[in-house]
Amino acid sequence: MAQRVSIFVxxxxxxxxxxxxxxxxxxxxxxxxxxxFPQDQTCCGQPAFNTGYxxxxxxxxxxxxxxxxxxxxxxxxxxxxxxxxxxxFHDLFPDDAQALRAADAxxxxxxxxxxxxxxxxxxxxxGARLEDVVTYHDSCHALREFGIRDGPRRLxxxxxxxxxxxxxxxxxxCGFGGTFSVKFPEISGGMAGTKIDSIVRTGAKTVVSVDSSxxxxxxxxxxxxxxxxxxxxLAEVLASR
Length: 241
Prior knowledge:
Distance between the termini: 26 Å
Strand content: 5-15%
Strand order of the largest sheet: 2-1-3-4
Structural class: alpha/beta
Largest sheet: 4 strands, parallel
Oligomer: single chain
CATH class of the largest domain: Alpha Beta
Number of strands: 8
Order of helices and strands: EHHEHHEHHEHEHHEHHEHEH
Shape: globular
Number of domains: 2
Radius of gyration: 18 Å
Number of helices: 13
Helix content: 40-55%
């Protein structure tokens, strides 16, 4: 019997980039997993947590723990949301032993998508094909909180027809940072500009990352500069045939 994988699609994917969630499910299905989408899922609580609304974040996190408590694996197309669940749920419940136990029990079963494919499924070639020249953006949470750097590049290297060109500012922040981009728009815009200049220098036609929030920031800057470069989540690339 195939192992069951529950997918948590995140707010941004659910509301703005549903194709990413569908692509992730397609890849996992191709790898032989039984894909489950818990209908009651909402948010991980990261927006409230990052802006200081601890009580509201706790409420959302408790709901998340309830929805996914029986999941064998939870796979997430976002380094930042994975980090919230794995690293920061524990911080939310210092005075709630039951919730703390639930958070600690769930954390080892929550995986960022690319890490799950490589380390749990044990696959670095999913049979994808995409005729394109791409560059890869290292999202801050995935890189700095999980050390996700070489893995996505290994997966991209095995996509037939794809050429990966490294940018010189791959590990620099795109300037999104959730509410940071709203509170500090000039700084955020300046950081995005630096990233766009680096992308352009590669000559790539597509920017790939593991976080749709970063790609949203980058795509907005590309569109404002009227540059013919698109963005794709890694899951969308790996789902290409």
